From TrEMBL:
This is LacI family transcriptional regulator. Residues 23-77 form the HTH lacI-type domain. The lineage of its organism: Bacteria, Bacillati, Actinomycetota, Actinomycetes, Bifidobacteriales. The keyword Lipid biosynthesis does not apply. Keywords: DNA-binding, Transcription, Transcription regulation.
Length: 356
């Protein structure tokens, strides 16, 4: 079928009026009464531009509805002002807060984030990385939902990368993760301050191939703080998985075996919810008889528990902020190396009210 009208040539007079009147950087400079170079520096936030001049240039750009030509800018600067982010989290419980923190930091520096979800598949992760590199991103953030160290990606052309939550096994890479050992110490110190001294521990999954690094690091913190206080865990420390049924089963085992305990540390909020159920079904009061602490500060679980659960917040958004800042430093030829640990925070609620 023939077209009713021939295509309009790019040079045709049919170009829209908005395209004809599109403001240029030169227009902004003329209106502001400065050189084109000064206008460019002012709009790009570069230093050594007088504050009054910067305001005048910005006002001129606003008045003219000036939109920078990002392609031209990237040709001049050698940067695309875009960052690739690859996540591995099916549900987003860990990766989403990290991504929010990174986006906040990168957006403040006028960077765009291109997001891809590898869903835990190494081949898909590689394919996503190749695609992002084809888009000329300035750097890559690799976000994982576990803290178990991961194999580093091979990234060509000197493009910098930062690993968030799951550190790279290469100590020359930059990795940002949670301080789970410090979190474990903090929980025990909190329970001791509440007058508890017979502290049981219910672990998550300790398998090295899964999320075991978090479980073992937290246990290291618990036991170090207990030993410093001259104490041992109440009863055996058991591991299984991160589920509510496991929390119920492990708590029932402690009770059935006659373990004397006045507090339980659960390595996740979901485990803690199961623990609370098992304690209440045996007629125990929380926190009067037993104090309970979780980990993760998942609001739908910790606030939805009865009573509301004292827990540990991993400060995931802060991990995202730190990872983005480290990546921006690397892009500007000031790379970080090794693992940087972000402290966790204790969120006290009604499950550990101190004894009066």
């Amino acid at each position: 079928m023939a077209l009713s009208q021939p295509p309009v040539p790019i040079n045709s007079a049919a170009t829209t009026s908005s395209e004809q009147t599109k403001a240029t950087l030169k227009d902004v400079a003329t209106l502001a009464g400065v050189s084109v170079a000064t206008a460019s520096k002012a709009l790009n936030g570069q230093p050594k531009v007088n504050a009054d001049t910067r305001v005048r240039v910005q006002a001129a750009a606003l008045q003219l509805s000036y939109v920078p030509n990002t392609f031209a800018q990237s040709l001049i600067s050698g940067k695309s002002n875009s960052i690739g982010a690859i996540t591995s989290d099916f549900q987003g419980m860990f990766c989403t807060p990290i991504l929010i923190g990174a986006e906040d930091e990168l957006g403040a520096a006028s960077n765009t984030v291109l997001l891809a979800n590898a869903r835990g598949d190494a081949t898909l992760e590689r394919n996503h990385l190749d695609y992002l590199l084809s888009r000329n991103v300035d750097g890559i953030i690799l976000i994982n939902d576990k803290t178990t160290p991961r194999t580093p990606m091979i990234i060509p052309n000197g493009i910098p990368a930062v690993y968030a939550y799951a550190p790279s096994t290469n100590s020359d890479d930059c990795s940002i993760t949670s301080d789970n050992v410090g979190a474990g110490r903090m929980v025990v110190e909190h329970l001791l301050s509440c007058g508890r001294s017979k502290i049981a521990i219910i672990g998550g999954d300790q398998k090295a191939t899964a999320s075991g690094k978090a479980a073992l690091d937290r246990l290291e913190g618990y036991t170090a703080a207990l030993h410093e206080a001259g104490l041992e865990p109440a009863g055996p420390v058991r591991f299984s998985d991160w589920s509510e049924p496991w929390g119920r089963a492990a708590t029932r085992m402690l009770l059935d075996q006659g373990v004397d305990f006045d507090a339980v540390i659960c390595q996740s909020d979901v485990i803690a919810r199961g623990c609370l159920d098992a304690l209440k079904e045996r007629g125990l009061s929380i926190p009067r008889d037993v104090a309970v602490v979780g980990h993760d500060n998942w609001m739908n679980v910790s606030l939805g528990s009865a009573p509301p659960l004292t827990t540990v917040d991993n400060n995931l958004e802060q991990i995202g902020h730190r990872a983005a800042r480290a990546l921006l430093d690397a892009i500007n030829h000031k790379p970080h190396h090794g693992v940087e640990y972000v402290p966790c925070s204790l969120v006290q609620r009604e499950s550990t009210i101190p004894r009066g």
